[in-house]
Amino acid sequence: MSSESIWFVICLVLVIAFFLDRERRSRVRIHETLHILEEIIAGNENRRIHVGDKELMAPLVFKINQLVDSYQNDKINALRIETARKQLLTNLSHDVRTPLTSVLGYLDAICDGTAGEEADEYLQIAKNKAYTLKEYIDELFMMAQLDADEMELVFEPIDLLELLRSELIGWLPRLQKENVRLEVEIPDDEYFVMGDQLALIRILGNLLQNALRYGGRHGDIGVSAWTGVNDVYFEVWDQGPGLSREEISRVFERLYKGDSSRTTKGHGLGLAIAKELVQRMNGTISMESTPYKKTCVRISLPKSKKK
């Protein structure tokens, strides 16, 4: 056998050995991948498949890991929704039944004559509690509409400053009745945003209600507005007890009620609704708090051209 033939045989053997080793490695890799997939299916969702970027299986493994991540996120979201549903039922049991029982108690006292000279006072208390209950039910209904995507926003150019000014005028009688001073810093100008008018009114109302509820008896409340390069801003502030950083990080969650004196009166829906509406108008919402000095909720919305 010539030397050329010997070298040919050696090269052929090396090539065959290379491909056999490559096939063996592929079989091992496939076996390892199947083993990891079995672990994931069995419930170990933290496992992931790792391969080199240049490996033949890399695109397939990348897609598999994406599917596992998506499944894990869906499972976490489903658990969060289920937890929120249970919390909602618990809150409904307390926040609806308790005031309703109280209203019925006052009305029974009036009807059976035990209220005596306090009948008018009892009637007013029952009326106030009934309105509070209606407000809560309205919030629940709106949140349900948002969740079901049944609330269609009508977008149009809106002069945000004019809307703020006109809506604040309607709040003055209530603020005067509760002896709360309103500070307003709104430029005499036109700043247009693309949004839904009713949604903007609801957002402002929720923020004012929040400020009045928690800060009204501690000092002034206020509304400010200004413009940036691309956005229009407005904020509603109060001088109440404020919130801790931990509470601020969760204050826009629906049904969230913190432990501080500021978060015990509400139902945990007003700010959540405001956040949902702001985000649907491509805006942002945030909160800053310095207790008994200034706690503000700030909204930013993209600028728009006039009609």
From TrEMBL:
Gene3D superfamilies the UniProt entry points to: 1.10.287.130, Histidine kinase-like ATPase, C-terminal domain
GO MF entries: ATP binding; phosphoprotein phosphatase activity; phosphorelay sensor kinase activity
PROSITE patterns: HIS_KIN
Signal peptide: none
Principal EC category: transferase
Record-linked InterPro entries: BphY/WalK/GraS-like, HATPase_C_sf, HATPase_dom, His_kinase_dom, HisK_dim/P_dom, HisK_dim/P_sf, Sig_transdc_His_kin-like_C
EC number: 2.7.13.3
Keywords: ATP-binding, Kinase, Membrane, Nucleotide-binding, Phosphoprotein, Transferase, Transmembrane, Transmembrane helix, Two-component regulatory system
Principal location listed in the UniProt entry: membrane
Catalytic activity: ATP + protein L-histidine = ADP + protein N-phospho-L-histidine
Domain of life: Bacteria
One cellular component (GO) term of this entry: plasma membrane
One Pfam family linked to the record: HisKA
Compartment list: Membrane
Positions of the Histidine kinase domain: 91-305
GO terms for biological process, alphabetical: cellular response to phosphate starvation
Transmembrane region(s): 6-21
Protein name per its UniProtKB record: histidine kinase
